Amino acid sequence: MAEQAQPFDLITMGRIGVDLYPLQSGVALECVETFGKFLGGSAANVAVAAARLGRASAVITRTGNDPFGVYLHEALKEFGVDDRWVTPVDAYPTPVTFCEIFPPDDFPLYFYRRPKAPDLQIHTDELDYFAIRAARIFWITGTGLSEEPSRSATLAALKSRDKAGTTVFDLDWRPMFWKDPEEARPYYAEALRHATVAVGNLDECEVATGVREPRACAEALLAAGVELAVVKQGPKGVLAVHRDGTTAEVPPVPVEVVNGLGAGDAFGGSLCHGLLAGWELERIMRYANAAGAHVAARLACSSAMPTEAEVDDLLNGVSP
Fold first, then answer.
1. What is the pTM of this model?
2. Mean pLDDT for the chain?
3. Residue 114's domain spans which residues?
4. Residue 299's closest CA among 319, 316, 320?
5. Count of domains observed in the chain
6. For the chain, which end, N or C, has fewer CB atoms within 10 Å of the first or last residue's CB respectively?
7. Per-residue pLDDT for 124 more than 50?
8. What is the pLDDT of residue 313?
9. Helix (H), strand (E), coil (C) string for the chain
10. How far apart are CA 83 and CA 274, in angstroms?
């Protein structure tokens, strides 16, 4: 088909769901009266973030066969993300996620993904390996490794890439999806063998590597097989180390935080944008930091993903 002839700039694979965020800040969940409904899930949000920056993106995931699943298809299309590999699962409902908003740095999440999330029902025989291998960037997450059949499908997709182009492993450690970190480490190690880029905060890097000091995390990720390690340090900014010795450590962009939950996904989409553009490492990190700050200054995740003009404004000192 003609529409499939051009490889995607980015294909992500993993979590999707409906975010129900309080429209009141600083209020405990049991007291919240009104919520906003948004597309959510890290893999979906990263695809949206890249699409907002003009990149051709698609997501491989699954929803429930229900009205929330229909809503997610519609939202992806509105954001310009290709949904051809988003399929329904009759047995499980579309997940919803609630949060509490206590700025500047407390945003508890409550995942409703039981008995099982549809996005963990991705099977190896359903994957379009040609498209996965052809994508300029392929992005997977740690959550996709947490249960079968998604675990096998994720690893099969990584192996099919054979490090073609750029393959990003978003460490995405969510402790509620695992029994303990020791259970996760072998699968993280296998994924790192097939990835070219690893991205995570200090907690996530510690799960993947067993160490926590930022520079040590980066070195351990490089030793595990990737070419670029990106270690997010919260208020200390981000450290990026490439196998060729190039290093960039940049501070965060100061904003008044409204909801910090989507910042990492905006960072991820912008990271992909910069890698695709062939920018120098420090420029990529500054740009991704600014995109994350833009979203942190807003309530929503997906619908707050910035355009190029909005990121440029923030980098140039224009208030979000």
1. 0.95
2. 95
3. 8-311
4. 320
5. 1
6. N
7. yes
8. 92
9. CHHHCCCCCEEEECCCEEEEEECCCCCCHHHCCCEEEEEECHHHHHHHHHHHCCCCEEEEEEEECCHHHHHHHHHHHHCCEECCCEEEECCCCCCEEEECCECCCECCEEEECCCCCHHHCCCHHHCCHHHHHHCCEEEEEHHHHCCCCHHHHHHHHHHHHCCCCEEEEECCCCHHHCCCHHHHHHHHHHHHHHCCEEEEEHHHHHHHHCCCCHHHHHHHHHHHCCCEEEEECHHHCEEEEECCCCEEEECCCCCCCCCHHHHHHHHHHHHHHHHHHCCCHHHHHHHHHHHHHHHHCCCCCHHHCCCHHHHHHHHCCCCC
10. 23
Q: Quote the pLDDT of residue 1.
A: 34
User: Model confidence at 320, in pLDDT bands (50, 70, 90)?
Assistant: low
Copy the structure tokens of residue 93.
Answer: 């409902």
Torsion angles phi and psi, residue 156, rounded to 5: -65, -40
Residue 2 included in any domain = no
Residue 44, domain member (yes or no): yes
Q: Give tens-digit pLDDT for 72-114.
A: 999 999 999 999 999 999 999 999 999 999 998 899 999 999 9
Pairing assessment for the beta strands 247-250 and 238-242 based on DSSP bridges: antiparallel
Peptide bond into 149 cis (omega under 30): yes
Tens digits of residue pLDDT in 152-183:
999 999 999 988 899 999 999 999 999 899 99
Per-residue pLDDT band for 319 (boundaries 50, 70, 90) equals low
Say which CATH number the domain at 271 has: 3.40.1190.20
Instruction: Using the predicted structure, report yes or no on whether residue 4 has a pLDDT greater than 60.
Output: no
**233 domain residue, yes or no:** yes
Residue 317 within any structural domain of the chain: no
